[in-house]
Specification:
Mean pLDDT: 92
Number of strands: 3
Strand content: under 5%
Largest sheet: 3 strands, antiparallel
Strand order of the largest sheet: 1-2-3
Bound molecules: acetyl coenzyme *A
Structural class: mainly alpha
Length: 402
């Protein structure tokens, strides 16, 4: 009979770390977070500077290649991404297989996974050129697929990419333009969209990125890996939080009801959590939340939305939570998703699209992390161990004798 306790003691160092709160799974040179100080750097550059001055494709280049591009490099990168914005026409038929009321994230899991069935050449991960092409394809096609999921959901025809527009503006165009009508890009809204994409571009080894790395560690192709990341992102404790946060603000309904919800969040017997609050890593303030709050105000101001009741609730909730003993003690601060929902709603997106937009932005982080892993000479298949708590060895009992 195997002595299970002895087994663990003979396999060398063994750590039991549920949720991997103190286990590094890889080395990475892409993103640095100091959660206590509220710092987020991409390749050394602070997120607020990138969000203020950069454009999304510039940040994509930075994450993928480690340096900000020169003008010539940026032009070349933009051109290469732009060349890949269309999806195979056959793919558009894929959408019609889904029910119209399907959640767009369900559609995204399926359609993005199916990219490997359309681009066989990019599934050869041993070829650096094909890895680059796969990266371009994913960054370029995600907004197109996301916009198609949205159009399908609302019963409108697909709008093809307009490649003279920048990444964010093109995305708004594909989502909100309708045939036979001119769609004018509002630069303030396009800039807000761009900032949302930048703020969500990467966040080191979060659940979905770790999922992408784990899937990729077996040699799975990048499209399959990104589909795995999308599936993980969907959960309300991760990317689904922006949708959940906005729904929660709606449920609170009025600033007068906030104390009741704060009390529920503190009650150990109530599973309710304040959505958009708390973060595994940030125990000071999520630096992205500050930028997102400013962006929310800019968008509402531009659209002339005064006294948005949800924004009022959000601001009051933040104020109360930040001075409440429970939230201070547990170091719970608004995260990026707290204000992104309000902004996306004002931009015209339904809540079901929020996590989809997160996936569009995070694709570059996933692919940069995947590429870094594939190019790491020490890369191994990811294979966490477990602490076995089941039955000890016993003999099979025939069914008649059980
Ligand atoms: N509301 C009320 N209490 C909370 C909240 C919350 N939002 N978040 C954490 N707590 C409490 C927990 O009940 C726990 O209390 P305890 O110590 O008495 O048991 C304590 O704070 C620590 O919580 P954990 O769940 O252990 O912290 P963890 O780091 O694992 O969780 C998480 C982080 C999942 C983000 C959590 O704060 C949460 O569920 N937040 C709401 C969902 C959300 O906004 N997610 C978005 C994350 S950001 C992103 O994905 C971009």
């Amino acid at each position: 009979v195997i002595d299970i306790g002895a087994l663990y003691s003979t396999t060398g160092a063994f750590t039991y770390d549920p949720g991997f709160t103190s286990t590094a799974s890889c080395e990475s040179a892409i993103t640095f977070i100091d959660g206590d100080a509220g710092i987020l750097l991409h390749r050394g550059y602070p997120i607020d500077q990138l969000a203020e001055h950069g454009d999304f494709l510039e940040v994509c280049y930075l994450l993928l290649y480690g340096e900000l591009p020169t003008k010539a490099q940026k032009d070349d990168f933009d051109y290469r991404v732009t060349r890949h914005t269309m999806v195979h026409e056959q793919m558009s038929r894929f959408f019609t297989g889904f029910r119209r009321d399907a959640h767009p994230m369900a559609v995204m899991c399926g359609v993005v996974g199916a990219l490997s069935a359309f681009y066989h050449d990019s599934t050869d991960i041993s070829d650096p050129y094909q890895r680059m092409v796969a990266s371009m394809r994913l960054i370029a096609k995600m907004p197109t697929i996301a916009a198609m999921a949205y159009k399908y959901h609302i019963g409108q025809p697909f709008i093809y990419p307009k490649n003279e527009l920048n990444f964010a503006a093109n995305f708004l165009h594909m989502c909100f333009a309708v045939p036979c009508e001119e769609y004018k890009i509002n630069p303030v809204l396009a800039r807000a969209m761009e900032r949302i994409f930048i703020l969500h571009a990467d966040h080191e080894q979060n659940a979905s990125t770790s999922t992408v790395r784990l899937a990729g560690s077996s040699g799975a192709n990048p499209f399959a890996c990104i589909a795995a990341g999308i599936a993980c992102l969907w959960g309300p404790a991760h990317g689904g939080a922006n949708e959940a946060a906005l729904n929660m603000l709606g449920e609170i309904g009025h600033v007068d009801n906030i104390p009741e919800f704060i009390a529920r969040a503190k009650d150990k017997n109530d599973p309710f959590r304040l959505m958009g609050f708390g973060h595994r890593v940030y125990k000071n303030y999520d630096p992205r939340a500050k930028i997102m709050q400013k962006t929310a105000h800019e968008v509402l101001g531009e659209l002339g939305i005064k006294d948005d009741p949800l924004l009022d609730i959000a601001m009051e909730l933040e104020k109360i939570a930040l001075t409440d003993e429970y939230f201070i003690e547990k170091k719970l601060y608004p995260n990026v998703d707290f204000y992104s929902g309000i902004t996306l709603k004002a931009l015209g997106f339904p809540t079901t699209m929020f996590t989809v937009l997160f996936a569009v932005a995070r694709t570059v982080g996933w692919i940069a992390q995947w590429k870094e892993m594939i190019e790491d000479p020490h890369q191994k298949i990811g294979r966490p161990r477990q602490l076995y708590t089941g039955a000890t060895e016993r003999d099979y009992v025939p069914i008649a004798k059980r």
